[in-house]
Amino acid sequence: QWIFLNDDFVKKEDAKVSVYDHGFLYGDGVFEGIRVYSGNIFRMKEHMDRLFQSAKSILLSIPYTHEELTDLVVKTVEKNGLKDAYIRLVVSRGVGDLGLDPYKCKRPNIVIIVEPLAIFPKHLYDTGVDIVTVPTRRNRPDVLSPKVKSLNYLNNVLVKIEAHLANVSEALMLNDQGYVAEGSADNVFIYKNGKLLTPPGYLGALEGITRNAILEIANELGYDVREEPFTRHDVYTADEVFLTGTAAEVIAVVKVDGREIGDGKPGEHTNRLLEKFRQKVIKEGVK
Ligand code: PLP
């Protein structure tokens, strides 16, 4: 396995970054998770735009253009000879001293990792997942915007810990006002009374690229789809619930905080959207 690390391809065991990197010391940096399907990189432009916007927001200057970085991602995929894989692109602030000051970091560290990935076991796509809501709240948009996909993922990590403690594989975070925001690394949708709803970005959700693809697909299929706030009660009483993300793709949720959703099986709308999503990902992409 070859990793792109700054100007070079290095073997996995040699891909090492200094302990003085501010990504390590302070979570100072940004990242993207991207997917390759049948050799096509799904929505590369959207991922690059989000990466550069995240970086701009935290005043981190990436020493490549969109095109150059896209080219490096494509080359890393090719070098690893994988047709279906997950790509992790990380830009950290780079090496500085022990103080917080990012201006002491002279050059960002750029890492591209490509490898096969399955975050949920395959059978869960047939059965659906059992999830809980947790006390950890999504950070407020006016504090550090959840639109910044930063290396500072501590509240997402806490969500995952809380899911483990509850013996389930994923959990939902609420925002500071108690509206449902998103999962630890995925967006949430509910289908209720003939409407498909997902929380608006301003409530504190990352505007996921998979979420956008599902909004597009649902519109094409003629669904009444809205970005609208909803509460846990709406989730408990929904006909269908599902999560979306680059790693998770589209996965049905069949139980939330012990409340069975619908008839406890992945619903017809979720299955239909997943099927259309799978058709879309193999049709699209650079290369
Ligand atoms: N929400 C969070 C916090 C995430 O980290 C991710 C993963 O990237 C998502 C949602 C889903 O976004 P996307 O579909 O772009 O992967």
TrEMBL record:
High-level lineage: Bacteria, Bacillati, Bacillota, Bacilli, Bacillales
Name of the molecule in the record: Branched-chain-amino-acid aminotransferase
Pathway(s) it belongs to: Amino-acid biosynthesis; L-isoleucine biosynthesis; L-isoleucine from 2-oxobutanoate: step 4/4; Amino-acid biosynthesis; L-valine biosynthesis; L-valine from pyruvate: step 4/4; Amino-acid biosynthesis; L-leucine biosynthesis; L-leucine from 3-methyl-2-oxobutanoate: step 4/4
General function of this protein: Acts on leucine, isoleucine and valine.
Similarity section: Belongs to the class-IV pyridoxal-phosphate-dependent aminotransferase family.
GO biological process: amino acid biosynthetic process; branched-chain amino acid biosynthetic process
InterPro entries in the cross-refs: Aminotrans_IV, Aminotrans_IV_CS, Aminotransferase-like, B_amino_transI, BCAT-like_C, BCAT-like_N, Class-IV_PLP-Dep_Aminotrnsfr
Enzyme class: transferase
Keyword field: Amino-acid biosynthesis, Aminotransferase, Branched-chain amino acid biosynthesis, Pyridoxal phosphate, Transferase
Pfam families linked: Aminotran_4
A cellular-component GO term for this protein: cytosol
E.C. code: 2.6.1.42
Reported cofactor(s): pyridoxal 5'-phosphate
GO molecular function, one term: branched-chain-amino-acid transaminase activity
Catalytic function, reaction form: L-valine + 2-oxoglutarate = 3-methyl-2-oxobutanoate + L-glutamate; L-leucine + 2-oxoglutarate = 4-methyl-2-oxopentanoate + L-glutamate; L-isoleucine + 2-oxoglutarate = (S)-3-methyl-2-oxopentanoate + L-glutamate
